[in-house]
Amino acid sequence: MNKVATLDEQIPLESVLIGNGIFSDTKQASSYYDIPCTNVTGIGPLLESSVCEKMAVSVGRCEYLMKACHAYPDPIICQSAEGFCSEELERPYFNSGRNYYDISRPCEGYLCYPIMNSITKFLRKDEVREAFRVDKAAPVFVGCSNKVGREFQKVNDFIIDTRPYVANLLHSGIRALIYVGTYDWICNFVGNERVFGSLDWKGLPDFRYQQENNKQVWSGGLWWESGPLRYARVNGAGHMVPWDKPVEALKMFKAWLEKKELD
């Protein structure tokens, strides 16, 4: 965008940080099996073997249907693919009643994070809304809007593959830090690593080599990088890394801003 925008319109973007992201259901949907049905997190498996056996049978078909959706992005095809993967790979975990944002903790409070209730109350205060210059006609703050989610779903937004956008950033010289808490289920590290271990960009060969053969240890977990792309695992953190591991998150953030290695 900056290449076609005037100087006044340009955004001086230098880098992006994406925590526990969703980029491609083709690569990430099947990871809903790995987290609860293996010991990849160090505290699994979490579900009964009979449940996992049934889920395992569906992994290949889920991946096949997701590929069909992206090859032929018709809402009917994509909704069928999403429906199958959701029913066979997501629902068993939801039915277990376990925390989908942090597999090590019970699901308590709004969005499984009790602090969300306090955050919601704070952001709904008149003085806070005024400080943020929120339009008086705007609705009250909600942490996760079902209405917004339904509107996105109507236009298939939830299934759009955003990997090309990340690749474009990297090719434009924008640095990207991808960090993932290892105890998250909904946007987990297994799926994220499948995404970035196959991301179509010029730095893929070296990044994949680093991912497979040269992981570095830091106080928060593991990390590796190639050129403008850095990936960091944060051990023991769930979906909200800065809340779960504030010391490690701050260290990671400062190292990124200062363009230093993690240690």
From TrEMBL:
Organism domain of life: Eukaryota
InterPro entries named in the record: AB_hydrolase_fold (IPR029058), Peptidase_S10 (IPR001563), Ser_caboxypep_his_AS (IPR033124)
PROSITE patterns: CARBOXYPEPT_SER_HIS
Keyword Glycoprotein applies: yes
UniProt-listed GO biological process terms: proteolysis
Pfam families noted in UniProt: Peptidase_S10 (PF00450)
Gene3D superfamilies linked to this entry: 1.10.287.410, alpha/beta hydrolase (3.40.50.1820)
Keywords (A to Z) from UniProt: Carboxypeptidase, Glycoprotein, Hydrolase, Protease
GO molecular function: serine-type carboxypeptidase activity
Keyword Glycoprotein appears in the UniProt entry: yes
Family: Belongs to the peptidase S10 family.
Protein name: Alpha/beta-hydrolase
Gene source species: Hyaloscypha bicolor E
